[in-house]
Design a protein that fits this description.
Belongs to the citrate synthase family. It holds the Pfam family Citrate_synt. It catalyses: oxaloacetate + acetyl-CoA + H2O = citrate + CoA + H(+). GO terms for molecular function: citrate synthase activity. The protein has helices spanning 37-43, 46-55, 61-73, 79-87, 94-108, 118-143, 157-166, 173-190, 197-206, 212-223, 231-244, 249-257, 278-292, 299-312, 315-319, 327-337, 344-365; strands at 21-24, 29-32, 35-36. It is an all-alpha fold and 388 residues long. It has two domains: 21-227 and 343-365, Citrate Synthase, domain 1 (Orthogonal Bundle); 231-337, Cytochrome P450-Terp, domain 2 (Cytochrome p450-Terp, domain 2, Orthogonal Bundle), CATH 1.10.230. Helix 7 packs across helix 8 and helix 11 (231-244) packs across helix 16 (327-337). The structure holds carboxymethyl coenzyme *A. Carboxymethyl coenzyme *A (CMC) binds at residues 9, 196, 227-229, 231, 256, 264-271, 320, 322, 325-327.
């Protein structure tokens, strides 16, 4: 064993080599498989990006069609799985229920759990991608006290998720389309982010040769935390709190700067981005577009804009290189679409799924991969005697 160095949060430890996502945190660069996030955001679709992340190359038109058709054909849940989801506590947080449901997929599809069988891994990949939106929508409908809706295979992946969630009556066809397009873009922007907490979790769990389902379920639970994906829900709650204070942004920021308060500016800061988060720029523009269409100006969006402006003019934030991250504006969009705050992190999970799968598969094929087993520096008592 070489020298063991202390590295809390693995901030300076590369645990693997990866060909999936490139980030340059100083320059604000994000690329999936070499393609800049801005180009993918402008021109591709979520399923194209999912294929790219998982298989390494963009799909040809025939491949994309086949991939889409397979996903749609596998979207319906087995009857027993529906009953299982319906039996979960309806007031439980949707992320808790989502993690539980995905974990049970290893039992419902027991013949697709062998990590060493590439056909089984392909099948598990397909089932997870196909069914996560169905599961998520069912959990939402149950929580809202509404009848769950079955998938409609004739619709697109994202479009059908929006329909299964809201029942296709958001007001107008045009609005449905706009929302599906916005949702697609948000999913693309969340699809991968190299060794973030949940993806690292998926890899760590997968390193013991656990199933893809078990690993993804662990990733969902990691994502749920407020310092990670749970931040998108926390941002909305923070904005509502500030609105409750009469919109007094400055006294809220004063509280954040007082470390004793334990309050953080949610949606700000990032382990890797120390300049800006390229995803936040895309999302801010999308938010402006979507909210512009509402009849009245969106109070929380206005508040978020003001909060961002004040924070970026404050040396506390600039000295520490704290900028808005992917979660800062996503919540106001989800809210405008009609999603309750408790669903925000579920939407993040739908987006991150292809990234989790791509990393799990990459690790499985990596000859250098070993079981994840960090070291420690022991600082507890030296030997002492039980007998006094
Ligand atoms: N508000 C106030 N102060 C902050 C914040 C914040 N959001 N983030 C970091 N700081 C301060 C922190 O107190 C520390 O100050 P000092 O040097 O005086 O002790 C300094 O900035 C460095 O912070 P850190 O905690 O060492 O940074 P980290 O790399 O360990 O944490 C982070 C990164 C994202 C967890 C953190 O910035 C944070 O808690 N942000 C708020 C939650 C959030 O928005 N999370 C979403 C992350 S993006 C995508 C995702 O995963 O969902």
């Amino acid at each position: 064993a070489g020298m063991v160095t202390l590295d809390p949060g693995f901030a300076n430890t590369a645990a693997c080599q990866s060909k999936i996502t490139y980030i340059d945190g100083e320059a604000g660069i994000l690329r999936y498989r070499g393609y800049p996030i801005q180009e993918l955001a402008a021109g591709s679709s979520f399923l194209e990006v999912a294929y790219l992340l998982i298989h390494g190359e963009l799909p040809g038109p025939g491949e994309l069609k086949e991939f889409t058709e397979q996903l749609r054909a596998n979207a319906a849940l087995p009857v027993e799985m529906r009953a299982m989801i319906d039996a979960l506590p309806r007031d439980g947080h949707p992320m808790i229920l989502l993690g539980a449901a995905v974990n049970t997929m290893a039992a419902f599809y027991a013949d697709t759990t062998d990590p060493d069988d590439s056909d089984q891994v392909d099948r598990a990949t397909m089932l997870l991608l196909a069914q996560l939106p169905t599961v998520a929508a069912r959990i939402y409908r149950n929580s809202a006290g509404e009848q769950p809706l079955e998938p409609d295979h004739s619709l697109g992946y994202v479009e059908d998720f929006v329909r299964m969630t809201f029942g296709g009556d958001s007001g107008s066809r045009e609005l449905d389309e706009l929302y599906a397009k916005a949702m697609d873009l948000l999913l693309i922007l969340h699809a991968d982010h190299e060794q973030n907490c949940s993806t690292a979790t998926v890899r760590v769990v997968g390193s013991s040769q656990a199933s893809l389902y078990g690993s993804v379920s662990a990733g969902i639970n990691a994502l749920f935390g407020p310092l990670h994906g749970g931040a998108n829900q926390a941002v909305l709650e923070m904005l509502e709190e500030i609105r409750g204070l009469g919109g007094d942004v400055d006294s809220f920021l004063a509280k954040v700067k007082d470390k004793e308060s334990g309050t953080r500016l949610m949606g700000f800061g990032h382990r890797v981005y120390k300049n800006f988060d390229p995803r936040s720029k895309e999302i801010k523009e999308l938010a402006a577009q979507i909210l512009h269409r509402q009849e009245q100006p969106d109070e929380l969006f206005e508040l978020a804009l003001r909060l961002e402006g004040r924070a970026l003019a404050d040396s506390y934030f600039t000295d520490r290189k704290l900028y808005p991250n992917v979660d800062f504006y996503s919540g106001v969009i989800y809210r405008a679409m009609g999603f309750p705050t408790s669903m925000f992190t579920v939407l993040f999970a739908l987006g991150r799924l292809p990234g989790w799968i791509a990393h799990w598969r990459e690790q499985r094929l990596d000859p250098a991969a070993r079981i994840a087993r960090p070291r420690q520096l022991y600082v507890g008592p030296a030997q002492r005697s039980y007998n006094g």
